[in-house]
Write a structure and sequence with these properties.
mainly alpha, about 70% helix
Length: about 110
């Protein structure tokens, strides 16, 4: 239940933040207003596209969270299907210093994930 409330709180905050950055300052707004007022010929300077840096940051952070969620799902599936037990059996015959138990493989995957 705690995880559910944390997920709902995160989603609500994320939704609020993404709505807020859609109306944030658009770098170049003042330049575009000045260019429109002084030059209506459609020159190259009036065609420059500026981005909302805060929106770009939020979009990229969102994609990172999606990737981390996908990786967590993959780790969950491998763990539940016995994939880490298989890794533990295979790694015992190796000359390299690898994890020797399924729990160590799981912790290694979770550590790399984070």
């Amino acid at each position: 239940i705690v995880m559910l409330f944390l997920a709902l709180a995160f989603e609500t905050g994320w939704h609020h933040l993404t709505r807020r950055v859609k109306r944030s300052y658009h770098y170049g707004d003042l330049h575009e207003l000045d260019a429109r007022a002084s030059d209506s010929s459609g020159s190259l300077t009036s065609q420059v596209k500026h981005v909302r840096l805060s929106k770009e940051l939020i979009d990229r952070a969102g994609s990172e969270f999606m990737i981390l969620g996908f990786l967590a799902f993959c780790i969950f599936i491998v763990n539940m299907s016995g994939g880490f037990e298989w890794c533990a059996r295979i790694s015992q015959a190796s000359d390299f210093d690898l994890p020797v138990s399924a729990a160590q493989w799981l912790h290694l995957a979770e550590f790399i994930h984070m």
